[in-house]
Protein 1
Amino acid sequence: MNLKKRLLYYGLVFGMGLVFVLLFFNLRGCEWLPDNRVISAIKSSQIIITNNNNCKLDCNKITPKDIFLLIDNGDVDFSKSNTKARKKQYFISDNNLELTFELYPFDSTAEIININEKIDCSCNNNDSIIKLYKPNNMMLKELNLKALKKQNLFSCQFECLNLDTNIIYTLLNEGEILFKESLPNRKPNPL
């Protein structure tokens, strides 16, 4: 076989292999890589923190927005993580922010257990747990990216009340999410 035919053959085999991989992984990107699987598991979990660690976040001027941007853009450093324990601990960093998350796979929670404190805070709060939610504007932006589906009952109620469908888009752009009444981590359908 001459060189041109051999290159064409290898190109064809490579192309078929690439198509097979894309079909096999259903065009979902590289979510099967360890780094992305950890981030995906944390994203789909309820983020919790103790009052004491929340005080340290406040003292160091780390906002919930910073935390969720870290989750979206950060990298898992497996050399600083503890993946051997039953509750796995993952060290995630991005720019100047570094946090350690303890992942509880059985109840779908991820706890922030360590904060890189730049300012030494004297936080001696109790260790009761609080939930962290994405800031309202970040969550509304995420909801706007999803396709809007209406159930028949909703459409019927909407018509009976003579409401304009533009109100839905106004709510998705300017509304306030009531997190305490919501179930954002319910699987398979968040509420």
Protein 2
Amino acid sequence: MNRVGNLLSFGTSLLFLVTGCDRSGSSPEAAGNIGTAEREAAAKLKVCKDPVWDEVAAYRNNVRMAYNSSLFDKLEKFAAEAREGRERFGNGVWRITHFHEALACRDDEPESMWELHDRIHKAWIAAKPESITARVAHADFLTEYAWHARGSGFANEVTDKGWHSFKVRLEKSRKMLEKARELPAKDPVWWKVAMRVALGQGWEKKDFDALVADAIAFEPKYFEYDKLRAYSLLPRWYGKEGDWEAYAEEAAARKDGLGAETYARIVMDLRGFHDNVFLETKASWPRTKEGLKLMLERYPDSLEIRNVIPMMAVLAQDREFAKEAFDRLDGSYLPYMWRKPERYVRYRQWAETGE
């Protein structure tokens, strides 16, 4: 097994590693050390906040406060409202996804904090034994707890104790999901958690494929399934070269799906596994570009999306599209997207001049 650990703990924000365009020396990252002119240009950027992410953060904070205080009635209300109408935020991410992610325990928390979370989840189920939300949330926690025990190292670096806890907690999560499946209410995150458990337990490919098919039949527009399906087709899991790219095309062609947006989200999600996803894989930049344009139309208020578009365009060495994207930003800069303002400046300069 490769270094996988927390790679299964995918978040939903459009935060990506900012890598260079390629290894040939033509990328912004290959231009050498930061110069005085870049620092001066960086100082003129307009530091902005994303109004969509501010809304998401406020929602997640409210959910977390209710969770920390064991206000289970309030949590049930939050979840029911999120599932009703398949509510989404202004960046296209489902509200129910953020609900569950708001409950997470940070990986750097001490063991005592993980144990406290486990007690809260058990108390929630005891208080609401017929709640789909409580059981999916606990299964999600147990899955994270399993990967926490395993760690993010290579297989031969994991202790016997780590492997034991990993296997025990994943099995507890699987059984929790089985109980949740018997309830009349359904939660789309159930399949997301089940897919992560299946990967961790090393299910047979045919069984994993059946789980994916069931998930997509339940909700074809929930792109979290597609991202995990594509991830599962990396060679470290069930796939071979070209498999995840072929799946991305299949998902984009789904009649009741999101079209090319799904393709773009898959490529963005998996780009961190490559120095340049467009040079090292069969990922299509024209198809990704089509998806990014759709996302820009569908989620015009998301500055995260506006910032990630020029990153992807530079990676694909599409100067014209990158320049258009930077022009739209007009110097607006989301620090957490670019890490350093000088990187924004360097990418923008490449888009404008090719240097």
Protein 3
Amino acid sequence: MNGLTDKVALVTGASRGIGAVIAARLAKDGATVVVNYAAAAPGPAQDVVKAITADGGRAEAVRASVSDEGAVRAMLEQIAARHGRVDVVVNNAGTWAGAALGEVTAAHYHKLFDLNVLGPLLVTAAAVRHFPASGGGRIVNVSSVAARGAAAGSSVYAASKAAVEAFTRNWAAELGPRGITVNAVAPGTTATEAVAAGPEEFKRATIARTPLGRMGTPADVADVVAFLASDAARWVTGEVIAVSGGYRG
């Protein structure tokens, strides 16, 4: 799967968690990785870049809110000007928030849909302008098992991830003639720092419902993303791969 040498990969929301590990994995496979972040403080993103370069990889950090159309276009133009093209986009930036139906507000909806749905749409639309004309581009969206599950209080989040999966299928049909594949990964509950700090009861319940008997790690997700970004997945498009140890939400 080490087929990313000389490729340029953008990973959104890559300053921490799953995104940071995906960025490191793509760099290990030879890609020049752009670590996107939105926070005012660049420290965490710069830490990811330093870790990648210390390991012999190539990376840089670029700030842009993925739900800001102007900022997204400027980011992609900056990447293309610096590197000549974009080969891989991983739409990882996203957020979770729960709310019972009677407590859902427009603000709750926009918090989730602006980042989880509008973000991938704006990034992908801007990025494909800079994909190689010769084909071979890769788009990997990050969904969630919640898109196909059923959990009280997660309706808006689940709907946002279902939209990501709809994007995946439709973009695959639209971009296939250009030689661009579009796929998604759907992680289950994953042991990021936020989850690790959560209630032990929740973690035990998750593990109990996972056939492989443990909680997922960011590396479990990153390995599948790396496969989909590589030439080994050249004949895979329009697919959503659950990366959950068998957990279905």
Protein 4
Amino acid sequence: MSESICSIEQLSKYVDLSHEEMKKLKRVTARHPMKVTSYYMSLIDWSNPTDPIRKMAIPSLDELSLQGSYDTSGEVENTKLQGLQHKYSETALILATNRCAMYCRYCFRKRLVGRRETREIIEDFKAAVRYIRHHTEINNVLISGGDSFVLPNEIIERFLSMLSDVSHLDFIRFGSRVPVTFPSRCRDNELLDLLAEYSTPERRLLVVTQFNHPKEITKQSIEAVDNLIKSGVVVNNQTVLLKGVNDNPETLAELMNRLVGIGVNPYYVFQCRPVKRVKKQFQVPICEGVNIIERAKARCNGPSKRFRYIMSHKTGKIQIMGIVDNEVYFKYHQAKNRKNLGKIFKRKINAEAGWLDDFKLDRNKQKTLVTVHT
């Protein structure tokens, strides 16, 4: 990681930048730092200005756009103590760090990732465990950030040791993109032995990673995934639908089919959130996204088409189901208000809408189609 590219001056060795471009990009990275591992840099085709790997990793002038919000999913309002969120009844989310091996330019936590100062990262892990222990409805914990696997092994072990004593937890998840951006981390025998110790047949550890493009599936990333699987870890994948990266059916289908082949379970495809400095460059309109997803699924096999197209909204995780008769149908896959769980609803088509809030609601005609009580 010490060899990572972290400045516009270093970047200028790879791509020609005018003095004005360097000046503007420095404004971007002053607010949202750049870091790209040497491994991930090696995946970029520098002769192609629209290379998808380049777009995900390298700062752009489009990041000067302030359209959107820095907290599109209501994370602040669901924070119960610093670094611990409890939005959905069964899940506690711990923000363990604001550091990553690489700072993805589409990150939905741009407000904190890579920044020198933040008050959103866990400070008192004992207090977090006490909260989880007290709330017996919590049956799983997601340790995220930032990237949880950039933490020192001793910190990861401390987290696992303390959480393993909470009897009502069924499993623990780690959110990490290091299998994709810094796969050599998953050759660390100390880390792998630690994961193997705590991932038991009775309570597996899960890693939620993020492959977004087939070019990210390399010999090194395959080895990283294989090492995690050999340690008893279940590996799931959450892709983000990104304009200019994977917003065509062929690319998305190839990604999902190959992921299943290497032992990674496609889990979600997320609608890109309308985050400041992200929305303009990366968000695909929802109606266009529905078309891409359905055409991609037509090219997928059974296991590779199990993923859901999801929008992580303030009110919950909303499945984007499809379009019928000029209306878009949605379903609450998860909900902050449990009364909404399973609820199916619809909105009139808006070709430009990239988020639920962009659709107009006719309150005289709108009704819940189906509600599943839980």
